[in-house]
Amino acid sequence: MENLGIIMLNIYQHKKVFITGHTGFKGSWLTAFFDHLGVKTQGYSLAPETIPNHYDLLNKNDAGSFANILDKEKLNAAVSAAQPAIIFHLAAQALVRPSYIDPVNTYETNVMGTLNVLEAARKCKSVKAVVLITTDKVYENREWQKPYAETDRLGGYDMYSSSKACCEILINSYRNSFFNIAAYGQSHEVLIASVRAGNVIGGGDWSVDRLLPDIAIAAAQNKKVQIRNPLSVRPWQHVLDCLYGYLLVGARLLNGENNFAESWNFSPYSSEAKNVQEVASIAKMSWSDIDISFGQAPDNFHEAGLLILDNSKAVHKLGWNPVWNTTKAIEKTVEWYKNFYQDNKVLTGSNIAEYLKLAQS
Ligand SMILES: NC(=O)c1ccc[n+]([C@@H]2O[C@H](COP(=O)([O-])OP(=O)(O)OC[C@H]3O[C@@H](n4cnc5c(N)ncnc54)[C@H](O)[C@@H]3O)[C@@H](O)[C@H]2O)c1
């Protein structure tokens, strides 16, 4: 028998979906996920920045426009032309280390970009739900063993994390001021939620300074890679587990369930948390060409040492469960890159099919 989560995904059939950040790592996987479900999407992002990139590999060139999230007129026009029922907002300056180099761009893109998306949603009457992607890094990090729950204090040491914490405050303010849960169905018809995922891994990510892409690119070139912060602990999770969570939240919002218009953590169980060195060792077991040394980054930018999320709200209230544990997620990621570099194969479609089969059982 199909589980409730999979049944909930049927709600997307014949709905129009708008995705910002569709050319990025997670946005291109989300587009492919919807494609697999037979749901059409419209994207809005800057053009892909790397060669290769997952978006071009998927040949999704018909799925959207290239424009800046800060261009309000273009964004409003794109949303209005698409007439979506739901918006997934992923466009962002998504990296910690570049946020130290260009804090203004990070804040503009992340905070003003989110504001522009919320305003576009307010103006377009077809929009019934908005899922806004922030991050696990929105919490005030106290280097605690205790996993952070949705009710924990927001913070953000670096510019990326604090910009995303600001987004959370902004989203909450929109939920109070314009998309109030108590007034849903009376003065407005829009439900909004923020989603906070852990360190997301999977094939097709070529962003700078990310652990598994750095390892895979070096292995493909038969080079040794130097990895920073080997003892840093993160909630590593496969991109499909994370996106499945986003889709379930979106489905509940589209279904008019206003008690789901909240913030949501998505991560592996806290017992799964692994440090960088452990992740690298598991990766090496899947690809013998991987050759790693550990060191410190030359710039000494502060990055959190210990970050674990509490996923119990998503598990108990949403019925979401990680399908692939962290070890499996690392193996699937390495397998994706190995196939790409050695055989020119893109495993995205088969990963999605395999994932959904397991999620159904
Ligand atoms: N990858 C992770 O581990 C992770 C973890 C938690 C949260 N997130 C969040 O998930 C979202 C997607 O992350 P990702 O890893 O796919 O990032 P990414 O860097 O691969 O993609 C970012 C996307 O945003 C778009 N973008 C950036 N600036 C823009 C602008 N000014 N105007 C229009 N589009 C713009 C890019 O074109 C791209 O499509 C982000 O909001 C990120 O903060 C990522």
General description of the model:
With about 350 residues, this protein is an alpha/beta fold. The protein has one domain (about 5-360): Rossmann fold (3-Layer(aba) Sandwich). Helices cover about 45% and strands about 15% of the residues. It contains 13 helices and 13 strands. The chain has helices at about 5-10, 25-35, 55, 70-80, 95-100, 105-125, 160-175, 210-220, 240-255, 275-285, 310-320, 325-345, 350-360; strands spanning about 15-20, 40-45, 65, 85-90, 130-135, 190-195, 200, 225-230, 235, 235-240, 265, 275, 290-295. The strands form four sheets. The chain has a seven-stranded parallel β-sheet with strand order 3-2-1-4-5-6-11, sandwiched between helices. It has a two-stranded parallel ribbon with strand order 7-10. Helix 2 (about 25-35) crosses helix 13 and helix 4 (about 70-80) runs parallel beside helix 6 (about 105-125). The N and C termini lie close together (about 10 Å). Nicotinamide-adenine-dinucleotide binds near residues 46, 93, 94, 135 and 136.
State the CATH topology.
Rossmann fold
Gap from first CA to last CA: 8 Å
Report the top-level CATH class.
Alpha Beta
Helical segment tally? 13
For the sheet with most strands, the description reads: 7 strands, parallel
In short:
This protein has helices spanning 4-9, 25-37, 54-57, 72-82, 96-101, 103-123, 159-177, 211-220, 239-254, 276-286, 312-318, 326-343, 348-360, and strands at residues 17-20, 41-45, 64-66, 86-89, 129-133, 191-197, 199-201, 225-228, 233-234, 236-238, 263-266, 274-275, 292-295.
